[in-house]
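Bump. Still looking for Aryl-alcohol dehydrogenase-like predicted oxidoreductase structure tokens.
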Amino acid sequence: MVVATKGGLRLEGDCLVRDAGRRLLCEGVEYSLHALGTDYIDLYQVHWPDPHTPPEETAGALAEMVTEGRILHVGVSNYDVPQMRELG
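Sorry for the wait, here they are.
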């Protein structure tokens, strides 16, 4: 079994907003760990590119959580190739 989940969206009023900032990603992982009853997530994906957060911030937060062992692998969905390259 592989535990996979996505993050990077937050509710603002009645709208979903793309937010791949460090704070929201870290909070999302902590929430998922608790909700799933596990110590780590096999695959954590950023759901959508966030035009308001620098890719370096997103990539840095994900790398930090991998180093800490909270997530094992990172991925993205709805990113095109240039956006994936920006994440490094």
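The helical segments are 22-36, 55-68, 81-87.

Edit: fixed formatting.
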